[in-house]
Amino acid sequence: MIAMALFIVNWTSFLARSQQRYKENPYTLVYEGAITQNAKGKVNVHPVKYKLNGIEIAANIYTPANYTTEGKYSAIIVAHPNGGIKEQTAGLYAQRLAEAGYITIAADAAYQGASGGEPRHTDKPANRVEDIHGMADYISRYPGVEPGKLGVLGICGGGGYTLKAAQGDKRLKAVATLSMFNSGEVRRNGFQQAQVATIQERLQKASDARNQEAAGGKIQYAGVASITDEEIARTTTDLYREGYEYYYRSHAHPNSTFLYTMSSMLDLMTWDATSSMELINQPLLMIAGNKADTKYMTDAAFGKASNAKSKELFVIDRATHIQTYWKPEYVSQAVSKLTKFYKANL
After folding, report:
1. Helix, strand, coil percentages, rounded to 5, for the chain
2. Left if phi > 0, otherwise alpha if psi is -120 to 50, otherwise beta: which for 32?
3. pTM of the predicted model, to two decimals?
4. Which end of the chain, N or C, is less surrounded by CB atoms within 10 Å?
5. 52 near 130, Cβ under 8 Å?
6. Measuring CA to CA, how many Å separate 302 from each of 93, 307, 308, 312?
7. Taking a C-beta distance cutoff of 8 angstroms, is the pair 34, 79 a contact?
């Protein structure tokens, strides 16, 4: 009982500290080991803004130690998870890859995070794919980036959108995903195919929401705005239980949310990350934990990549989906594999 009480006290204290990270960090980064100040000769972070189809995009550029504008560097795009923002796991991987010598970019999706766009929390696949193209536009022209040496890493939903972006965008010379999540399949069929029977009902609901928006009515939202500890404890799947803990407790940030417009479901439910996978002819690396309840999505996509120049499925032992976002031993394994992959292919 004493040990349990101490655990509860320590966990509560950890959560309180975690939820204050964004306030204490000058760049509002919430991951462990985040940069707190830029220093000469070190990895630095540079907040930038640029326009993409008329929308202002907020991004962070990470430059490697001893970076010079006259140098020649490979660059890596990092696409964040669904509900995520650049200050969370996308920033962690961008920083770690910058530590390995790459210039990296992590941007908030249009309509989300600190980026512009209305209605807020619009979550359409075409927008998320265009976000990746836009990061490629921007980082390719960043001082020191060597033309033709651009890689991409997509995490969770960002992984699915990365696969789609890479099908057409051949500026992306090396393509990697981490804990890939096929947003279209899950919004259509439900997680682990749990909502197949209600597809038409949910499409009608999305259609009605779009109609209401078009008439100037109130915007309807799907997803989760907030959640209690009891609701988290009752969540049966690792993905969502650990996801709620990550986004609403241990790595909380006010710009991060699980909300999305109901009308977005029209586009999400009719989209699939793995359609036309044969168009990927670049080297492909897909990473997932062997305990991830989302691994079936990585397996399905990997099997369809029939024309990839090379492809590898790297499985992290004992890792769940969300643990690959933050747990040091799993992050280190993923980063080590990624750096070898990019070194060989950029």
Report:
1. 45, 20, 40
2. beta
3. 0.94
4. N
5. yes
6. 22, 11, 10, 8
7. no
